[in-house]
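User: For my dataset I need records formatted as: sequence, then structure tokens, nothing else. Please produce one.
Assistant:
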Amino acid sequence: MGGRSGIGMLRIAEVQKELKMTPEQVAKLDAKQDEVRQKMQTLFQGGGNPAEMTPAERQKRTEQMMEVQTKAVNEILDPTQQKRYRQLDLQQQGASALMRKDVADELKLTDEQKKAIADAQVKADEDRRAAMQGVDFQGMSADDRAKLMTKMQDIQKASGDKMLAVLTDAQKTQWKEMQGTPFTFPAPTPGGPGGGRRPGGGGSGVGTR
């Protein structure tokens, strides 16, 4: 759960404006983020190495982390803000959000669809590991880093396209509606809360590619 999720997303000025957050709500972010950090540390204590987990184990860990983040966000935002926040969260996560239990339940994904989506994620993970194999990050030139970033984005797009292809036309329509009005996340800044995406969140949109 990076800086573009949960409390981290609420730190983005453009998101605060979109959600019409009050100064009082913004003032609660520091304390709430410290609380989330402590809960995350507790969650990871005694846990396995994510790289050695099965897809099911990783999914369970991700859901636990999301539950902590969602609870913290909901303790700051009012119901109307929570609804829009979820739309932004789905846009930001893109098609990978289809692996979330709450999303899968809402879309009424079949077991066959869930497996196909999980397989696409596993393939993307394998492709990313292969792309990173033997990479010397310290010695990389700016051009090499840009090429690697482009390759990672291509892997993510291919994975998202495979996941979306699993959905029926009705589910694709519902998925688009679940994301609400497209929102343009700001470009990343050094030391800022993470990378940006165009509306639809890198593979999340339907019929936008």
